[in-house]
Design goal:
8 helices; rod-shaped; 53% helix; 363 residues
């Protein structure tokens, strides 16, 4: 189990968890600064929808009723006691709670006695910074409830379409169970990959032209940044495909047979996203090779010019050294046109060499 913390962009609040040395498995970490997370609750049946942002976890638990589906969403990991209380109410496994608090987990799905636990990774393009922001989202779901835990309290809402579908009663979200709601959340995260992929693809198209035309060092930095983004995207999409495949093959009372059909559609979307990411990674490698080839070509052109100039000065230096010797009985030493003759000889030598280089295609 990895406890390595991922660096969060500075535009988002970061909360660092600390695991005590020798702590038992399933122990929730201690945080340096406790800030109350945002908690929202949506309870719905086929006819009624109730939605409210509550002030405490106890108020959220109190809104869980015997009828319908209840969805509790927690934004922020700054107060592990919130998850601990939810774990007591819904009998969440301590190891699952530990994975939810410690970010940087690999996307996965785990089955427990009374609930499923999913770790998802969502990505979005952040206009404020020239990079892609990642976020871990944990999903617990049982027979009639769903609990989602988002890493950043102000990291955007990738579940807005699901909330709108619940409010407006679109599709079969109010008629199905908690497993179908969990599928919708999973599918919304998979669909959120495509705008990111489109943004990277557009940037890649710009870099293809920039790699040929520009010789600035910033181009190499931009290419490397895109390659790093694609690697992060692949690390999120690849295990997501495996995760959906595991849910497809699960036989459980918590997963209705109809939900397996919809999971196949989400699996197809994950495969499509993964194929595009792999194609973009190959394109990024090709763009890097194009840039390096263009740089080598420019270097060869410069070296060719410098070589021609240096070669031209070889006979000129030879002539100058001959006429620079101070002997008393030198030919043309007292000749009136000796200086002009030396310069003319140098010019003719240089012209003959330039003509020879041009004829051979070296210049």
């Amino acid at each position: 189990m990895s406890r390595r913390q991922r660096r969060v962009p500075s535009i988002l609040p970061s909360f660092r968890t600390r695991i005590r040395p020798g702590a038992l498995p399933g122990t929730l970490p201690v945080v340096e600064k406790v800030v109350p997370p945002r908690i929202s609750v949506i309870s719905f049946t086929r006819e009624v929808v109730e939605e409210k942002e509550v002030a405490s976890v106890e108020e959220a638990i109190a809104r869980v009723g015997p009828d319908g589906i209840t969805w509790i969403n927690v934004d922020g990991l700054s107060d592990p006691s919130v998850l601990a209380r939810l774990g007591e109410r819904f009998s969440l496994h301590p190891l699952a709670l530990e994975d939810a608090v410690n970010v940087g987990q690999r996307p996965k799905v785990e089955r427990y006695d009374k609930h499923y636990f999913m770790v998802l990774r969502t990505m979005r393009v952040e206009p404020a910074i020239p990079d892609i922001v990642e976020e871990q989202i944990s999903v617990f779901f049982g027979a009639s409830w769903v609990v989602t835990v988002q890493e950043h309290p102000d990291g955007g809402d990738c579940f807005g379409a699901v909330r709108a579908a619940i409010r407006q009663g679109r599709g079969r979200v109010r008629e199905a169970g908690a497993d179908y709601l969990a599928y919708l959340l999973l599918d919304s995260i998979v669909d959120a990959y495509f705008p990111v992929i489109e943004t990277i693809a557009e940037r890649m198209h710009e870099l293809e032209n920039e790699a040929i035309q520009s010789s600035a060092n910033e181009t190499l930095v931009h290419i490397q940044r895109v390659r790093r983004q694609l690697l992060s995207l692949r690390r999120a999409v690849w295990p997501m495909r495996e995760e959906i495949g595991i849910l497809q093959r699960e036989e459980s009372a918590l997963l209705a047979p109809e939900t397996h059909i919809f999971l196949r559609d989400a699996y197809d979307h994950a495969i499509q996203a993964l194929e595009i990411v792999e194609s973009l990674r190959e394109t990024a490698t090709n763009v890097m090779e194009i840039y390096l080839s263009a740089q080598n070509q420019r270097l060869n052109e410069v070296m060719k010019v410098l070589t021609v100039i240096a070669t031209l000065f070889i006979p000129l230096t030879f002539i100058a050294s001959i006429y620079g010797m101070n002997f008393e009985h030198m030919p043309e030493l007292h000749w009136r046109y000796g200086y002009a003759w030396a310069l003319g000889l140098m010019a003719v030598s240089a012209g003959v060499m330039l003509a020879y280089f041009r004829r051979r295609g070296w210049w």
